[in-house]
């Protein structure tokens, strides 16, 4: 186990984050504020509360999940795509470290960045609304598992992408729609029955629901299902990484 | 002393179907400078890439310092430093940081004193805080060497280290390589500059179309494969060569004062004695003789042609 190498990659990735703290943190904070203005103030005025929770507070877990998914994917995919793009990948491949260690470095850093951003959004939200936290440990658990899973997906996308367009493709075309349709800004129970059924096919709904349960103790789906969903995401990511480790796909000719 | 690198039947066919290496076998001695020569696409980079872990071989095996490069890759790679053919650096990183990063990847504890020594030896110390995108091409190449040396490797691979580097810098680079060898590092370099192989190497390997055509001590190679040219300076100008000397393949200079004769040092007889006897018979006065060893370049071209 080359722990130093893992830490080297991890520190290198985190250094990029702290080198431009303004860009790293400001943009998620600004978009949070915008969402509050648009959804919280404008729409929230018409929806006083959802199942006893003020609408402004209700959207916070979804907002955090939206950002965590986007940021995890963006950070991890960029982290591994950049050395491919710059041609410095040779150094990672020639290092005395296993693929699993490489993944741990990049994914660990990407996940931690997302978690930091999530905490910052949470703190920003506290300025605007009363934010209870029914199950803080569960919240942190859901947050961590989600950040790690989607950083793994991001890593895979960065590995798969051959150019910048491809790098943008899946986050834009798949992830963002899934989050918006996954009940980030509404409860699935507010939908007509047919669309409720459709919404339940969306795996992201289970993540958001579980995370929201950790805040308010109420959920669209049983929390056990949410836990199962996040476990499945994690297992999928780990399996794909393992498969790549076995085959060297997109890494070694 | 066991060889530092053992390569057995190493083969690579890329997914595209390109056969880049066909069963290369060789031993590399600890502490030597081995130059690999070969035309474009010969398989030099592929060979190096396999030993460094960038490319998976499709046949054969290899060991570095006794460690199999596949089974025991950590131990093998710890011994290796690689300077790739293409210059690729992280543009916004500083020199010092990028060198530290390389050392960390190899699992070595931070040691800025060692890195200072490496950067100084490559005259990069003044640039330690410069961003890589602010450096010239030659400096970037030296940064790549510094990165490769950051963890104190026992084997250094230099894939065309002096491509696109000016003469002064090239000589500097040679000096660096010699110092490395003096400190016991084994150096494997590839080059298109035959002058470079001639200048630097202890042994020379010639690769063409994925085959190792030859691996030989440089001195022996030059000796065994070298052609020599004998130039005979005459006392009086000749208008034309006499017919009796026609069979030797001589050429007469324009002023008629010099005759040159090419011969193969590998042949049993050089033919010099017969030639000079012929001169005497014709009553041609000889003022001086001069022989000239052919360059490695000619040796190289001849081997590649013969191999074709
Ligand atoms: N990643 C790759 N995929 C497919 N074919 C490749 C790949 N890399 C190299 N090749 C092919 O393998 C052969 C050997 O290439 P290699 O780069 O090893 O040659 P080289 O001796 O280093 O050449 P040069 O002197 O031009 O650097 C070439 O035909 C090349 O096109
Ligand atoms: Mg090459």
Automatic annotation (TrEMBL), chain A:
Give TM regions: 25-43, 55-82, 102-125, 137-161, 167-186, 198-215, 221-245
Position of the signal peptide? none
Subcellular location field: Cell inner membrane; Membrane
Q: Which UniProt keywords apply?
A: Cell membrane, Membrane, Transmembrane, Transmembrane helix, Transport
Q: Cite the GO molecular-function annotations of the record.
A: ABC-type transporter activity
Pfam families listed in its UniProt record? ABC2_membrane
Q: How is this protein annotated for GO cellular component?
A: ATP-binding cassette (ABC) transporter complex
Per the record, membrane topology reads: Multi-pass membrane protein
Q: Does the keyword NAD apply?
A: no
Q: Which residues form a coiled coil?
A: none
InterPro entries, A to Z: ABC-2_transport_permease, ABC2_TM, ABC2_TM_bact-type, ABC_2_transport
Q: Which residues form the ABC transmembrane type-2 domain?
A: 19-248
The UniProt similarity line reads: Belongs to the ABC-2 integral membrane protein family.
Query: Could you identify this protein by its name?
Result: Transport permease protein
Q: Which organism is it from?
A: Albidovulum denitrificans
Question: Top-down, what is the taxonomic lineage of the species of origin?
Answer: Bacteria, Pseudomonadati, Pseudomonadota, Alphaproteobacteria, Rhodobacterales
UniProtKB/TrEMBL annotation, chain B:
Give start-end of the signal peptide.
none
CDD domains, A to Z: ABC_DR_subfamily_A
The domain of life is: Bacteria
- Classification via Pfam families: ABC_tran (PF00005)
* InterPro entries membership: AAA+_ATPase, ABC_transporter-like_ATP-bd, ABC_transporter-like_CS, ABC_transporter_ATP-binding, P-loop_NTPase
PANTHER family the UniProt entry points to: ABC TRANSPORTER ATP-BINDING PROTEIN
Q: What is this protein called?
A: ABC-2 type transport system ATP-binding protein
Say which species the protein is native to.
Answer: Albidovulum denitrificans
The major lineage groups are: Bacteria, Pseudomonadati, Pseudomonadota, Alphaproteobacteria, Rhodobacterales
């Amino acid at each position: 186990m080359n722990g130093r190498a893992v830490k080297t990659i991890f520190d290198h990735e985190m250094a990029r984050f702290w080198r431009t703290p303004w860009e790293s943190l400001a943009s998620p904070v600004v978009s949070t504020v915008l969402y509050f203005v648009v959804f919280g103030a404008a729409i929230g005025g018409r929806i006083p509360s959802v199942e006893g929770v003020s609408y402004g507070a209700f959207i916070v877990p979804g907002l955090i999940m939206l950002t965590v998914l986007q940021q995890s994917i963006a950070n991890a995919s960029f982290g591994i795509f950049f050395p491919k793009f710059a041609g410095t990948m040779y150094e990672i491949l020639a290092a005395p470290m296993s693929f699993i260690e490489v993944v741990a470095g990049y994914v660990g850093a990407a996940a931690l960045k997302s978690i930091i951003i999530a905490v910052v959004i949470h703190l920003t939200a506290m300025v605007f609304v009363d934010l209870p936290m029914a199950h803080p440990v569960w919240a942190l658990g859901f947050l961590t598992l989600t950040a790690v899973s989607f950083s793994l997906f991001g890593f895979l996308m960065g590995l798969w992408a051959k150019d910048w367009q491809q790098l943008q493709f899946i986050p834009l075309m798949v992830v963002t729609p899934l989050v918006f349709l996954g009940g980030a800004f509404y409860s699935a129970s507010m939908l007509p029955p047919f669309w409720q059924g459709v919404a339940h096919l969306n795996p992201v709904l289970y993540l958001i629901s579980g995370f929201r349960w950790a805040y308010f103790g109420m959920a669209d789906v049983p929390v056990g299902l949410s836990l199962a969903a996040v476990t499945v995401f994690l297992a999928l990511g780990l399996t794909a990484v393992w498969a790549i480790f076995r085959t060297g796909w997109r890494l070694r000719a | 002393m066991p060889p530092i690198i053992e390569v057995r039947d190493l083969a690579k066919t890329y997914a595209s179907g390109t056969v880049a290496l066909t069963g290369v076998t060789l031993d590399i001695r600890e502490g030597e400078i081995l130059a690999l020569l070969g035309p474009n696409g010969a398989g030099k980079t592929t060979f190096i890439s396999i030993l460094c872990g960038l490319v998976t071989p499709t046949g054969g095996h290899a060991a570095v310092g006794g460690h199999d490069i596949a089974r025991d890759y950590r131990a093998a790679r710890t011994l290796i430093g690689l300077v790739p053919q293409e210059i690729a650096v992280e543009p916004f990183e500083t020199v010092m940081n990028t060198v530290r990063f390389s050392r960390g990847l190899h699992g070595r504890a931070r040691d800025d004193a060692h890195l200072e020594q490496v950067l100084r030896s490559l005259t990069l110390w003044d640039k330690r805080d410069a961003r890589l995108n602010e450096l010239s091409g030659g400096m970037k190449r030296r940064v790549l060497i510094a990165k490769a040396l950051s963890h104190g490797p026992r084997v250094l691979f230099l894939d065309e280290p002096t491509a696109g580097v000016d003469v002064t810098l090239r000589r500097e680079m040679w000096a660096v390589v010699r110092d490395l060898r003096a400190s016991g590092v084994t150096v494997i370099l590839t080059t298109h500059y035959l002058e470079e192989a001639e200048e630097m190497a202890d042994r020379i390997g010639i690769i063409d179309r994925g085959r190792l055509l030859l691996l030989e001590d440089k001195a022996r190679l030059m000796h065994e494969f070298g052609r020599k040219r004998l130039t005979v300076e005459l006392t009086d100008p000749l208008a034309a060569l006499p017919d009796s000397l026609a069979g030797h393949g001589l050429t007469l200079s324009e002023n008629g004062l010099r005759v040159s004769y090419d011969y193969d040092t590998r042949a049993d007889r050089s033919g010099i004695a017969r030639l000079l006897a012929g001169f005497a018979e014709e009553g041609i006065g000889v003022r001086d003789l001069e022989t000239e060893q052919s360059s490695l370049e000619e040796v190289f071209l001849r081997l590649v042609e013969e191999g074709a």
